[in-house]
Specification:
With about 130 residues, the chain is mainly alpha-helical. The protein has seven helices and no strands.
């Protein structure tokens, strides 16, 4: 498990750094940390598609979709998911592959690993209180 998460840390750090820079190096909303923490639990309890549906729903607070966009950017760099690039977003890709259990299981596992890497990396940035 450790190496599966570690391989995603550079990509996770790249995504959060880009977000931080885009927002003039202001503290990142603590809600993102919560969204990252609940992503894995939600996937284990509800499954891939229901979780992605919830995360793509627009919220009045910090957008959960941003968390999934970070995950998707990292997924797109992985050779086994190279066909996801033309799908536009992770939810559409997951729907497209739902009948391929091998690919769906691999995607679910990678999303769980990426969420842990993002959760570790976001701690290195200042968070709004």
């Amino acid at each position: 498990m450790k190496t599966k998460v570690e391989k995603h840390i550079p990509g996770a750090l790249r995504q959060i750094t880009a977000y931080y820079e885009e927002h003039d190096r202001k503290p990142i909303s603590k809600e993102f940390k919560g969204y990252l923490s609940s992503l894995g639990a939600s996937m284990r309890m509800s499954g891939l598609l229901p979780t992605l549906a919830v995360y793509y729903a627009k919220e009045s607070r910090a957008d959960r979709g941003k968390v999934i966009s970070w995950v998707f950017e990292i997924i797109k760099e992985m050779p086994q998911f190279s066909n996801c690039i033309d799908k536009g977003d992770l939810f559409k890709y997951a729907i497209d592959i739902k009948n391929n259990s091998t690919l769906t299981n691999a995607l679910t596992e990678e999303i769980l690993n990426i969420s842990v890497a993002l959760k570790l990396c976001i701690r290195t940035f200042p968070l709004k209180k």
